[in-house]
Amino acid sequence: MASKGEAAVSGAVERVGRYRWVICGLLFAATIINYIDRQMIGVLKPTLMADLHWTEQDFAGVIIWFQFAYAVGYILFGKIVDQVGARVGYTIAFVVWQVAHIFHGAAHNITQFAIARFALGIGESGNFPAGIKAVTEWFPAKERAFAIGVFNAGANIGAVLTPLVIPYMVIAWGWRSAFVITGVVSFVWLIAWWLLYRSPREHPKVTEGELAWIEQDPADKVQKLGYGSVLMKRETWAYALGKFFIDPVWWFFLFWLPGYLFERYQLDLKTFGLPLAAIYLVSDMGSVAGGWLSSRLMRAGYTANVARKLTMLVCAFAVLPVLFAESLTSVWMAVAVIGIATAAHQAFSANLYALPADMFPRGAVGSVIGIGGTVGAVGGILMSFYAGEVLARIGSYWPLFAVAGSAYFVALACVHFLSPRLARVDMGA
């Protein structure tokens, strides 16, 4: 039950403003751009394989270079964001990934494409460390999972827009121009970010009441903590191993699902967009719902430990039907089953992303996120290699759906075993 002080602060926020949601909106927009840029290669897989004469292993190799760079970049940007803050860190990441995205339009062979994907992976890896750092600065603990769920929903909006818009751009102007046009237009976001983002205490739009709401949690030490300080903490590996098991599933859905719909249901560039967009639209609702549920449970008096883990357990069960996806003969039945699975992934992910801020002081959050992102990208590399080999050798997606259906239970078990109570970490210990 909320105290009188909390109720007074909450009432003040209701009256005087919610500028923190403008910041959340900027993060949401950046994540849309991030996922349009990321997913274009999946949507264009059949086109690129035909035009550039790739095999399944070639496609997997290009994806692996992206994921390898993503793993390296997460470590890099986790540290950068903790040192220079979200505003500058996000700016650096955005410029790198947009320049790399535009360069795809100039690639003529697999080596050049792999270089472009590598650079894209370095830049895009900064999106979530910087975004979660911003959420940590701008939202109290009870709102963080919901705020993360909202901006993480941008991933699904990007995934919805990509198959609806990009095929028509390709038909009209070719796939090379599609990369250039989307990259150039995206720089509008960077202007908005630089003009609108500051820390809450420095921002003229933040009222005293809203600042009190943002800073209602007990203060932790204002110190920058590096990887050496967090690597030996069990709680770091609770988060990182969770990422190791669930991130590869999302990579699979992002990069191989368009090809699966092409092959399994005989769709083409014009007809597969609506089913694919429907899947990601459903997953978008899951991202917000997962953050809302754990935040609602916390407002009802449950601890973060109970709220986060109960929500993640519900999500793990919701993914299970994807085990039978390949046996479905109707494309819209497959859309329903896979859509629920992707929604559950996003809900699970929103709560997993909230754990570093639940357990660590602000000065360590970026580093923990960086380690987790790297470990998750390593899992993604293994999944990409596995997918390329499975599809080339046996031509069946069932083994890949089997991994997807079981990964979330393993991830939750790791989180619970390594951090049974999600207790705050004493960085002095």
From TrEMBL:
Coiled-coil parts of chain: none
TM ranges: 19-37, 58-77, 89-107, 146-171, 177-196, 237-257, 277-294, 306-325, 331-353, 365-386, 398-418
Protein name: ACS family hexuronate transporter-like MFS transporter
Gene Ontology terms for molecular function: hexuronate transmembrane transporter activity
Residue ranges of domain Major facilitator superfamily (MFS) profile in the record: 23-423
GO cellular component, one term: membrane
InterPro entries: MFS, MFS_dom, MFS_Na/Anion_cotransporter, MFS_trans_sf, Sugar_P_transporter
Record key words, sorted: Membrane, Transmembrane, Transmembrane helix
Membrane topology according to the record: Multi-pass membrane protein
PANTHER family per record: HEXURONATE TRANSPORTER (PTHR11662:SF285), SOLUTE CARRIER FAMILY 17 (PTHR11662)
Record organism: Sphingomonas trueperi
PROSITE patterns named among the record's database cross-references: MFS
Subcellular location: Membrane
Keyword Mitochondrion: no
